[in-house]
Amino acid sequence: MPNQPNVQHPTEEPRVLVPSTDKGIKSIITVSWIDRKVENLQVWAQGRLWYLYLPLAIWMGYIAIRTLQNADYRSFIEGLNLGIHETGHLLFFWAGSDLMAAGGTITQLAAPLITIWQFSRQKDYFAVAFALSWLGTNLTGIARYMADARQQILPMVSYAPGPASHDWAYLLSRMHILEQDTIIASVIRTCRNLILVVSALAGAYLVWEMFIQQFRKTGTP
Question: What keywords were assigned to this record (predicted)?
Fold first, then answer.
């Protein structure tokens, strides 16, 4: 019987499972991005005194809960928001009737958004969460004001002499969508609710991380 050639079969290499679709790759990238963000938050929480941030986190949660219970809930910060709104009209007095009317809302949104941007650059994550909550309170006032565009039963405030005009009655009439005032206001309130809940949860999580980091380091809260 003829000798059979000695054939060596290559050993099978272990298989590396890789996503076969773009969806799988995107899922891995998303999870990796979330993990990095959570790690950044945990590093930020190290060495910080949780009890100094706790009152603000409680306030953020309180505002979120009260607003979910009452869509037009007015917090004590409403006075600040109104002052910023009226200052915005003064800042845009030179820009014509349309921008002057919109200037109050533009400034009212710009103040918390600029604050969020600034604290994001500084990587002060709790301050970002708090500024988000502040943005939510501004959206409450904006939605309330917009929903009143046709009825105009809210008391008006103005720095200018003479009777105050209703910003959103004027602006929505100019855009020919005055009859949509309550619908647009409802959309704004939905966005506001999401922002307030996210900011409150973020604040609570950061305080918890501060507490855990301190407890692990010292064994005491």
Answer: Membrane, Transmembrane, Transmembrane helix
